[in-house]
Design goal:
The structure holds two protein chains of two kinds. By secondary structure, chain A is an alpha+beta fold. Chain A has eleven helices and ten strands. In chain B, helix 2 (71-79) packs across helix 5 (194-200). Classes of the chains: A alpha+beta, B alpha/beta.
C-alpha cells in the first residue's frame, strides 16, 4: 500500500494552486455579488488543462484520471468552491459523452468542451426532486427523424453557461423507460429557465432547463433508447459524487488553513488563542476530518482509475466529506469569534459553500442508502 | 537561436520562511524539512528563454548546482517547457561561495556546448548576493547585463534590452552570446499546463559530478571559497516608540517627514 502521491500529482497540485491563487482570487468578490460564473476564466482554465482534464487526448483532452481530477478540483476549491463546482459538472458531461457517445458524437461535442469554448452539464433533477430518478416526468417522443422533448429540469449546475445539456427524459415506462439526449441550447423549444439565487457557491450557475416541444435530431440520443437510467446513475455515481467530494475537500482544506492561521495570530490573555486547549482541540478536529476525507476522496478516485467498482466508496466520500466540510466550517467560524460572521473573513463563505455541497450531486441521505445497502447485503437472508 | 541555458536554483519556499532557522555553528540555513521551490526570479529568466523558444525556436537547457533531492524542482522547471536539465551534484561542490559556484557553472556551460544566451534570475532569495551571474559571465568572457526589465529579439538576432537602473531605465542593443539577469518586471512566468507536466516526464535530467567537469578540487566547496562567514547576528525585532506633539496638522507633517526619513516614501 502506498499513500505517497507521485511527482506528477504534486506538480498538478502546485500548478493548480498557483493558478487558483493568482487568477481566481481576484474574481471572488464579483462572483459573490453577482452570482455569475466567471466565463472569462474558461480559456485560461482550458490552457492549463482543467476543462479537458479527463477528456481523452484524441478529443483534445489531457487524458488524466480521476485522482488527478480530485486533486485539481480540491485545489481550485481551496480558493473558491464555486469554480470547481462548475468544472466538475462540466467534467460530468464529458465523462457521459465519452462513456456513452458514438464516435461521431464524441468527435463533435468533446473537443469544444475540452477547449473551454463552452461548458457542459447533465440535467437529471426535476421539480419533483433529484433522488427519485424514476419519478421524473420530462418526456421524449420519437416523431420521424426527431425527438420531441417536453419538461423542466431544475437545480442544474451550468444551466445557463452551457451550450449543450445532457438531458434524461422518459421514453417509456419503468426503469427501462428513461433515455439520455444531447440537447443544444439553441434547439427549437429549448431555453434556460430561471436562475437560482443561492446563499452558497454563489459563482456557480444553477438554474432551470426548459424544453417546450423541443426538437432535436434523432442522432442526439446518447446511448441506447431505454438506457437513460444507466447513464444517469453511472455519471452521478462516478464523476458526480467524486467531483462533489473533491469540492468539499477543498473547502475543508481552506477551513483548516483559516482556522489554524487565525488561532495562531489572534492574541487573547497575552498569547495566541491556539495556546488555549479548547481552541487547539477545535483545530485538531478539523485537521483530523481533513485527513479522513482526503483519504476517502483519493481512494474513491483511485479506484475509478483502477477500473474497480467504487459506487459505495464514492458515496462514502461524497456524503462524509460534504457533511464534514460544513461541520468544520462551523468550527472555523467559532474559532474566529464574532469576526467569523463578518463578510470580510473567508470562513463564513466556507460554511455557505459547504452547505450547498450537502444536497448537490446526491443528498447525504441517498449516499447513506447506497452505503447501507453495501453494508447490510452480506448479512441479509435471501428471499 | 540555437541554445539558451537557464540557471535555476532551488531555494527555501518563501511561504514557510517563518520556519527557517540558522545553524549557530556553521552559520548556514537549516534546510531540513523546508520545501524547496524554483527561485522566483529564475522563473522570469526561464519565461524569457521559453518566449524565444516559442517564437524563434531554440533548445532550452536548465542548469542547476544542488543536492540530488533537487530533482523535483528541476522537474517543475522542465514542466514550464524547457527541453532538458543538467544537475551538478557532488560533495566536492558543497559549501561553495559565489566565486566557486560561478566557476562550476561556467565549466558546466562550456561542457553543454555552444550557446546564444544564458538567462539567470537577478538574485536568489536565499543568498541575495546577485554575484553569481556576473562571475559566470566573467569566467566565460562574455558580456553580462543585469537588472533586465524587458527583452526583445530583433530580426537580425540582436537583442533589445531594457535595463533597470537606480534613476530609471537604459535601453541596450546587444548581440549574443551574452548573459542576462532578469528582474520580475521582465515578464509574467507562465502557469504550468497539465499537458506540459506529462510531456516533461519524458525529458532528461542528467546529473554531473566533478568527474564530468574535471575542475581542481582545491577551488571548489567550502575549502575553495574565499568568502568566510565571520559571524552572524540576529536582528532585534523590538518596536521603538515615538511621541509626536503639536496640533493635528503639525503632527501629520512630522509623521510624513519621519516616514520619508525612514525611506518608506
Amino acid at each position: 500500500m502506498d499513500f505517497k502521491l507521485g511527482e506528477r500529482e504534486e506538480l498538478l497540485r502546485k500548478s493548480t494552486r498557483e493558478f487558483a491563487e493568482s487568477e481566481i482570487t481576484p474574481r471572488i468578490e464579483a462572483m459573490e455579488e453577482t452570482g455569475e460564473f466567471p466565463l472569462d476564466l474558461l480559456k485560461p482554465m482550458a490552457k492549463l488543462g482543467i476543462t479537458g482534464l479527463i477528456a481523452p487526448p484524441e478529443y483534445e483532452g489531457v487524458g488524466l484520471g480521476y485522482l488527478a481530477r480530485t486533486i485539481v478540483l480540491e485545489e481550485l476549491s481551496r480558493v473558491c468552491a464555486a469554480v470547481p463546482m462548475g468544472m466538475q459538472v462540466h467534467h460530468m458531461a464529458i465523462a457521459c459523452l465519452n462513456d456513452f457517445g458514438t464516435e461521431e458524437q464524441k468527435k463533435k461535442y468533446i473537443p469544444p468542451l475540452s477547449r473551454g469554448e463552452t461548458m457542459g452539464c447533465v440535467a437529471v433533477t426535476e421539480p419533483s426532486g433529484g433522488s427519485d430518478v424514476l419519478g421524473m416526468q420530462a418526456t421524449a417522443e420519437l416523431k420521424g427523424d426527431k425527438y420531441i422533448l417536453n419538461g423542466r429540469k431544475c437545480w442544474i449546475t451550468n444551466s445557463h453557461t452551457s451550450d449543450y445539456w445532457i438531458v434524461i427524459a422518459r421514453t417509456g415506462e419503468g426503469p427501462k423507460g428513461l433515455s439520455a439526449f444531447i440537447v443544444d441550447k439553441d434547439a427549437p423549444g429549448a431555453k434556460p429557465g430561471r436562475k437560482e439565487h443561492k446563499f452558497g457557491l454563489r459563482g456557480a450557475n444553477t438554474g432551470e432547463v426548459v424544453m417546450d416541444n423541443c426538437e432535436i435530431p434523432k442522432g442526439n440520443l446518447l446511448g441506447q433508447e431505454g438506457g437513460g437510467l444507466g447513464v444517469a446513475l453511472k455519471t452521478v455515481s462516478e464523476s458526480g459524487r467524486t467531483g462533489m467530494a473533491a469540492v468539499a475537500l477543498g473547502i475543508l482544506q481552506a477551513c483548516y488553513e483559516e482556522a489554524a492561521k487565525y488561532a495562531s495570530e489572534r492574541v487573547l490573555y497575552g498569547k495566541p488563542i491556539a495556546a488555549l486547549q479548547a481552541i487547539s482541540f477545535y483545530v485538531a478536529e478539523i485537521y483530523t476530518q481533513l485527513d479522513i476525507c482526503r483519504l476517502l476522496c483519493y481512494r474513491a478516485s483511485w479506484m475509478k482509475d483502477q477500473n474497480m467498482r467504487f459506487d459505495t466508496e464514492s458515496a462514502i466520500a461524497k456524503s462524509y466529506t460534504c457533511e464534514a466540510a460544513a461541520q468544520c466550517a462551523k468550527k472555523a467560524i467559532e474559532i474566529h469569534g464574532a469576526n467569523g460572521i463578518a463578510l470580510e473573513y473567508k470562513v463564513q463563505r466556507l460554511l455557505r459553500d459547504a452547505m450547498v455541497t450537502i444536497s448537490a450531486g446526491g443528498t447525504g441521505e441517498i449516499g447513506k442508502v447506497v452505503v447501507g445497502r453495501a453494508a447490510l447485503t452480506p448479512f441479509m437472508k435471501k428471499g | 537561436m540555437e541554445r539558451v541555458i537557464v540557471c535555476v536554483k532551488p531555494v527555501p519556499d518563501p511561504k514557510v520562511w517563518d520556519r527557517l532557522r540558522m545553524d549557530p555553528v556553521t552559520k548556514t540555513l537549516i534546510r531540513e524539512g523546508i520545501p524547496s521551490v524554483v527561485n522566483p526570479l529564475d522563473k522570469h529568466a526561464l519565461e524569457a528563454a521559453l518566449e524565444i523558444k516559442d517564437t524563434y525556436g531554440a533548445e532550452v537547457v536548465l542548469l542547476s548546482m544542488a543536492p540530488p533531492d533537487a530533482r523535483p524542482v528541476l522537474r517543475e522547471a522542465l514542466s514550464m517547457g524547457a527541453d532538458r536539465a543538467v544537475l551538478l551534484s557532488d560533495k566536492a561542490f558543497a559549501g561553495s561561495d559565489t566565486l566557486a559556484t560561478a566557476l562550476i557553472l561556467a565549466e558546466a556551460i562550456r561542457r553543454i556546448g555552444p550557446f546564444d544566451l544564458i538567462c539567470c534570475g537577478n538574485y536568489t532569495l536565499d543568498g541575495s548576493t546577485a554575484q553569481v551571474p556576473s562571475q559566470v559571465a566573467e569566467f566565460l568572457g562574455i558580456p553580462n547585463i543585469m537588472h533586465v526589465a524587458y527583452m526583445g529579439l530583433e530580426q537580425d538576432k540582436r537583442l533589445v534590452i531594457t535595463q533597470k537602473i537606480e534613476q530609471g531605465y537604459v535601453k541596450i542593443a546587444a548581440a549574443p552570446p551574452l548573459l542576462l539577469s532578469f528582474t520580475k518586471e521582465a515578464n509574467k512566468p507562465r502557469f504550468i499546463s497539465f499537458l506540459e507536466i506529462l510531456a516533461a516526464e519524458k525529458r532528461e535530467i542528467s546529473t554531473w559530478t566533478n568527474a564530468d567537469l574535471n575542475l581542481d578540487e582545491s577551488l571548489l566547496g567550502l575549502g575553495g571559497s574565499p568568502t568566510k562567514m565571520a559571524d552572524m547576528l540576529l536582528r532585534e525585532k523590538g518596536r521603538q516608540g515615538l511621541r509626536l506633539e503639536g496640533s493635528p496638522e503639525e503632527i501629520a507633517h512630522q509623521l510624513a517627514n519621519k516616514i520619508g526619513q525612514l525611506g518608506f516614501i
